[in-house]
Fold this protein.
Amino acid sequence: MAAHAENIVDAIVALLAVSGSHYDLSSRVVLGHRETAPPSSPWVTLSIASASISATAPQTPLSKWRASLVVEVEGWVSGVTATPDGRIRAAMRLVSDICAALGAARGLPAVSGVTVIDVLPALSAVDGDAHGLAPGYGLAVGTITVDYLTTGRV
């Protein structure tokens, strides 16, 4: 069930693990959830929230299945200053870098065996202190939804 979903997640990791306009995420994008602060900043973790497959008529050709993969995103970045403003601005820059990386290759061309319909990020910038989640960090949290066509495997 997970063959295409894993390939899509690997493609997302590769897209995000580059130097962005604001942050260098090289070697700082990993699959898995963190319960504690990351070893360095910035840091992005991805985890699969859901993977589903269905036939949706009439949009789906008879030989294909329409599938959807939702990937949870949690990005950590230290604020430039130890203020709420600094943490939120740092998180906003990380959200911008993530969206820019995804926008550069919306079709995820590196994924074989699937036809990507759309890649939709839904991310928010959060002050980790204000929510008691990650003192000293700004957080980029949300999901990336990938809708695609496949021949039967998610």
